[in-house]
Design a protein that fits this description.
The chain has helices at about 1-5, 50-65, 70-90, 95-110, 115-125, 130-145, 150-160, 165-175, 180-195, 200-215, 220-235, 240-255, 260-270, 275-285, 290-305, 305-330, 335, 345-355, 360-370, 375-385, 390-400, 410-420, 425-440, 445-455. With about 450 residues, it is mainly α. Among the domains are: about 1-220, Alpha Horseshoe (Serine Threonine Protein Phosphatase 5, Tetratricopeptide repeat); about 235-290, Alpha Horseshoe (Serine Threonine Protein Phosphatase 5, Tetratricopeptide repeat). α11 packs parallel to α13 (about 260-270), α13 packs antiparallel against α14 (about 275-285) and α22 (about 410-420) packs antiparallel against α23 (about 425-440). The longest helix is centred in the C-terminal third of the chain and has 22 residues, at about 305-330. Mean pLDDT is about 90; it is low at about 1-40 and about 330-335.
C-alpha cells in the first residue's frame, strides 16, 4: 500500500472528505443557534502559523521513538501530526508517513488496547482512498467503544465515499447524538449538500466555523477550510461575488491556502478575467501540482490561444496519472482492499472532457465504480461511457448520479449531453438549461459546449 502513496506530486482531493462540503438530510437536527453571522461571527483574521509547532512535535516523537521503539502512543501521536501536515500542504509524503506510524502503533499494541492507533489508522486510510478498510476500522472502533462520536464520523465518511448513503445518514445521526462539534457540523454540511439542501449545508458550515473560532487557540487550517467550503457552496450556486469573498477570507486566515488559491482562479475565470485566473492557477500549481488544477490551467491556456503551454499542462496531467499507475502496480487489488487510485477519477474525467482515450477513461471509471459507488463515481462512469460509445450504460449511470437530488451544474450538464446523444431533445434541453441557470460558468470549456448544444 505504501508504494501507491510514495509518489511526490500526487494530491488528495479526497481531503474534502476530511469533511468537505456535502451533508445532512432533513431528518437530522439543525443547530439551534441559526446562522452564526447573525450572532456576530468575527471577520476573517490572520491566525498564527502553527507549522513550526507541528514540525517540532514531529521531531519530538521521532526522537522519542528512536529511544523507545515500543511506544505505541508516540506512534499514534506522530501519525496524527503527519495527517495535520498533509491537510496543511497536500503533500502525500505525509500520508505515507502517517500510515506507517499508525500501523507501527498497532503492531506494538493491538487495537483492543490502542484506540488512538486504530483511530488514526482509519483516518489515514480515508485519505488514502482505502474506504472499505476505513469503514471496517470504524466499525471496530464502535465495537470497542460505542460512546465516541468521532468513530461514527469516520464510519459515515467511508460509507459516503462507498455510496452507502442510508447507513451513512445513520452514522452521522449517531455522531450528532453524542455531542455537537466542528466535525459533526462539517459532516452534516457535506450530506446536506449531497441532498441538494444548500441552505442547510451553509448553516452547518457557519456553525462549524463558529465552533472552531470559539476555541481558546483556533487552528488556522480548519478555519480556512470552513471559509473555503462556504465559497464552494456559493460558487456551485453561481454566486461568484460571495464565493470570492469566502475564498479571500480563507486566504486572510491562512495565506497561501492551496484550495482557496485555486478556487479564486476558478472564480476569476467565471468572471471573465482569464489572465487573473491563469495567475491564480499558476500560483497554485507552483505550490503543489494537483492534476485538477493542472488541467484547469491547460484549459485557460487553450482559451487564450497558448496552445503549446496548454499541451504541456495536459501532458503533465497524464504524467501524474502514469506515475499513479506505476506506483499502484504492486498494491493490493481494488476488490480486496476497497481502494481507489488517488487520481483515477480525475484522470478519467480529464480524458472524457477533452475527448481523449475514451476506452481508457471508461476503464478507469468502471474499475473504480465496482467498489466506490457514490454519485460522483456514477457520474464519472456515465460521462466516460458516453464518450466511449456506451450510451445505454451512460443513461443508467447518470440516473444513479442524480438520485440524491444534488444541485451540481456539472451533473446536469452530463445528463443533458447524454439525453441529447440518445435523441431525447426535451430532456436534454431541460438538463442543460438547469445546469446553466444554476451556475452559468461552471467550467470554462464545458459551459460553452452546453450553450452551443442549446443553440437553435
Amino acid at each position: 500500500m505504501f508504494l501507491r502513496l510514495a509518489a511526490v506530486g500526487l494530491t488528495l482531493l479526497a481531503l474534502r472528505l476530511s469533511v468537505s462540503a456535502w451533508g445532512s438530510s432533513a431528518a437530522l437536527s439543525l443547530p439551534s443557534a441559526g446562522d452564526p453571522r447573525a450572532a456576530g461571527l468575527p471577520a476573517a483574521v490572520l491566525l498564527p502559523d502553527d507549522t513550526r509547532a507541528q514540525e517540532q512535535a514531529i521531531r519530538f516523537f521521532e526522537d522519542r521513538l528512536r529511544s523507545d521503539p515500543e511506544d505505541a502512543r508516540a506512534y499514534a501521536s506522530l501519525a496524527g501530526y503527519h495527517l495535520q501536515r498533509l491537510r496543511d500542504t497536500n503533500n502525500t509524503q505525509y500520508l505515507t508517513r502517517a500510515l506507517g506510524a499508525a500501523q507501527s502503533s498497532l503492531a506494538v499494541v493491538p487495537d483492543v488496547r490502542n484506540i488512538a492507533g486504530l483511530t488514526v489508522l482509519a483516518q489515514a486510510e480515508l485519505s488514502a482512498h482505502e474506504f472499505i478498510a476505513a469503514r471496517d476500522r470504524a466499525q471496530r472502533l464502535i465495537e470497542l467503544d460505542p460512546s465516541k462520536g468521532a468513530s461514527y464520523g469516520i464510519l459515515g465518511d467511508a460509507l459516503l465515499e462507498l455510496g452507502d448513503y442510508e447507513p451513512a445518514t445513520e452514522a452521522f445521526r449517531q455522531m450528532a447524538a453524542r455531542g455537537r462539534s466542528t466535525g459533526t457540523e462539517a459532516r452534516l454540511a457535506r450530506y446536506a449538500s449531497l441532498r441538494g439542501e444548500t441552505e442547510v449545508a451553509r448553516r452547518h458550515l457557519f456553525s462549524a466555523l463558529a465552533l472552531t473560532l470559539n476555541l481558546p487557540s483556533p487552528p488556522r487550517e480548519p478555519v480556512a477550510w470552513s471559509r473555503w467550503q462556504l465559497g464552494e457552496l456559493a460558487f456551485g450556486a453561481g454566486d461568484y461575488a460571495t464565493a470570492e469573498r469566502h475564498y479571500r477570507d480563507a486566504l486572510t486566515t491562512f495565506p497561501g491556502y492551496l484550495q482557496a488559491v485555486a478556487s479564486l482562479g476558478r472564480v476569476r475565470a467565471a468572471q471573465g478575467d482569464l489572465p487573473g485566473a491563469i495567475k491564480q492557477y499558476e500560483d497554485a500549481i507552483q505550490r503543489f501540482p494537483d492534476p485538477a488544477y493542472v488541467a484547469a490551467l491547460g484549459d485557460l491556456y487553450t482559451l487564450t490561444g497558448r496552445h503549446r503551454d496548454a499541451a504541456n499542462q495536459y501532458e503533465l496531467v497524464e504524467q501524474i496519472g502514469r506515475l499513479t499507475a506505476a506506483t499502484t502496480a504492486t498494491a493490493a487489488t481494488t476488490e480486496a482492499s476497497g481502494s481507489s487510485g488517488l487520481n483515477d477519477r480525475q484522470l478519467a474525467l480529464f480524458y472524457a472532457d477533452h475527448d481523449l482515450k475514451p476506452e481508457e477513461a471508461y476503464a478507469l471509471a468502471a474499475r473504480e465504480y465496482e467498489v466506490r459507488r457514490d454519485i460522483y463515481g456514477a457520474d464519472a462512469l456515465a460521462w466516460t461511457a458516453l464518450k466511449a460509445g456506451k450510451l445505454a450504460e451512460a443513461q443508467a449511470a447518470i440516473e444513479q448520479a442524480l438520485r440524491l437530488g444534488t444541485k451540481d451544474a456539472r451533473l446536469f450538464y452530463h445528463a443533458g449531453m447524454i439525453a441529447r446523444a440518445a435523441g431525447d431533445q426535451p430532456a436534454a434541453r431541460t438538463h442543460l438549461e438547469r445546469a446553466l441557470a444554476l451556475n452559468p460558468q461552471f467550467d470554462p470549456l464545458q459551459a460553452a459546449i452546453a450553450r452551443r448544444a442549446l443553440a437553435p
